[in-house]
Amino acid sequence: NKGMIIIKGVQKLLRLRYLICNLYFKLQFYNIKIMARLQKGKLLAVIGDQDTCTGFLLGGVGEVNAKRQKNFFVVNKDTTIHDIEEAFNSFVNRQDIAIVLITQKIAEEIRHVIDNHTLPIPSVLEIPSKDFPYDSSKDSILKRAKGMFSAEDFR
């Protein structure tokens, strides 16, 4: 009887291993497709509060291109929603930007604009900020990504 329980447990573990390997290969496939589109010299763009942008700038993300355009936008209490929308739209329309990082608090303010961006590159990623933790239930991009997989993928 104990032997049957162990055999069933091993079968479940093997099935789980198969699913994890299958998911891993699917993710690698999507990663290869995305990386094939990326070229050397593509940048990260950051839209966030002062602390978030400063952290990324200290990490070496900051760049100013030949047209004197920065790849970061600092949002403070005086920044209008229109200014945030303009910064986001300028980043997603630039050819030298591959990923746009935006704090979730700021993303909530321009959710309608983010939801209209459907291209894979530049990718838009919502990140937490110092004062506002990440909430996956508010992340529309994560919800879209979850829609890429079916329940069959996890059986």
List key phrases describing it.
155 residues, Rossmann fold, 2 domains, 4-stranded parallel beta sheet, elongated, ATPase_V1_fsu_sf, ATPase_V1-cplx_f_g_su, proton-transporting ATPase activity, rotational mechanism, ion transport, V-type proton ATPase subunit F
Q: Would you state the CATH class of the largest domain?
A: Alpha Beta
Task: Provide the number of structural domains.
Answer: 2
Question: Averaged pLDDT, please?
Answer: 77
Structural class: alpha/beta
Task: Please give the count of helices.
Answer: 6
Tell me which oligomeric state these chains represent: single chain
DSSP E strands, number: 4
Q: Could you give me the name of the CATH homologous superfamily of the largest domain?
A: ATPase, V1 complex, subunit F
Poorly predicted regions: none
CATH topology description of the largest domain: Rossmann fold
CATH architecture label name of the largest domain: 3-Layer(aba) Sandwich
Strand content: 5-15%
> Which word captures the global form?
elongated
First CA to last CA: what distance? 26 Å
Helical fraction equals 40-55%
Question: What string, H for helix and E for strand, traces the elements in order?
Answer: HEHEHEHHEH
What's the gyration radius in Å? 20 Å
For the largest sheet, list the strands in their spatial order: 2-1-3-4
How is the main sheet built? 4 strands, parallel
